[in-house]
Specification:
301 residues, alpha/beta, six-stranded mixed beta sheet, five-stranded mixed beta sheet, 41% helix, disordered C terminus
Length: 301
């Protein structure tokens, strides 16, 4: 006798309808009937009297129902006890600090993951300079979101999330064309960036290779706002945050564009929780692009 047989019996006992019970258990009706027949053969007596239009318990069926209800209750109690004593699974997702700081995407991702896998903990950590991508994925990081700019081996799975684009925030009187700025137009300008943008700012600065452009890390943009308005500096940002007017943003064009932002996981990690994390990460980024929260980003084609 198995727990599955008991659950099949209880479903028919509660509904007195094989078709309804089968749908409740997500089984086909022949499969459910097969489980009940096997149980009856094991007990040596019929549990239900059934016709084409009617199902009712036999005397043996009523006796067995008491046993089945108690047994199933004890089984569920045992499962709960085992689950409570087992440490919960934990996944660590490393993501760009700038996205964590400025976009609600990761709040939405955490919420969606918690709804899908309440028994699994997901921690989101900001990115760091230390270690290569492959080292991170073998040293406590289960999934990683960053720009794809490394040669990867076959041990790493890659899922493109969006084309990486960077923006400069210009004051209303700054003499730049609308929408886009080339690196050659930035000679002599000062570009401010906040600490959460340090990694990306370092990458962009190395690609512009113009010593006349002054890059300055500031504690926050709020203190530099008067300088932005007077045209004495520009603000660097990887997203079009709604804090400033949309028309103040210009896309930064580089001779060597940045690679796409991707989700990286270990190819040999076949846990269901990793599969769900990957699906939800792609879904939330797609939704953020579609509704404008991830402004300026376009899906990779």
């Amino acid at each position: 006798m198995t727990d599955r047989q008991i659950r099949c019996f209880l479903a028919v006992y509660e509904t007195l309808n094989f078709s309804v019970a089968a749908r409740k258990l997500f089984l086909t009706q022949p499969t459910l009937s097969y489980q009940i027949r096997n149980l009856e053969q094991e007990l040596g007596a019929p549990l239900f009297m059934r016709t084409t239009s009617h199902v009712e318990l036999t005397d043996v069926g009523r006796q067995f129902a008491q046993f089945a209800l108690e047994s199933h209750k004890l089984y569920l109690k045992l499962q709960a006890s085992i689950s409570a004593s087992r440490p919960p699974e934990k996944l660590v997702l490393q993501a760009p600090a700038t996205m964590i700081a400025r976009d609600p995407l990761y709040h939405d991702l955490l919420f969606a993951f918690r709804q899908k896998l309440p028994e699994c903990e997901l921690e989101v950590r900001p990115d760091t300079h230390e270690k290569s991508l492959a080292q991170k994925l073998t040293n406590g990081i289960n999934a990683l979101i960053c720009i794809n700019q490394q040669d990867l081996n076959e041990d790493v799975d890659v899922q493109v999330l969006f084309n990486t684009r960077c923006f400069l925030l210009c004051g209303p009187d700054t003499p730049f064309p609308a929408h886009k700025i080339s690196s050659r137009q930035l000679s002599g300008y000062t570009i401010c960036y906040e600490p959460c943008d340090s990694l990306l700012a370092d990458t962009v600065r190395s690609r512009l290779c113009d010593p006349s452009i002054q890059w300055r890390k500031v504690s926050n943009f709020e203190k530099e706002y008067p300088n932005l308005l007077s045209g004495r500096c520009l603000f660097f940002s990887p997203v079009c945050a709604p804090v400033f007017p949309k028309e103040w943003y210009r896309e930064l064009l580089m001779d060597r564009p940045l690679g796409p932002t991707c989700l990286f996981t270990r190819s040999n990690d076949a846990r269901p929780s990793i599969k769900i994390l990957k699906e939800l990460t792609v879904l939330e980024h797609t939704r953020a692009i579609a509704d404008g929260r991830l402004a300026g980003a376009e899906p990779e084609i």
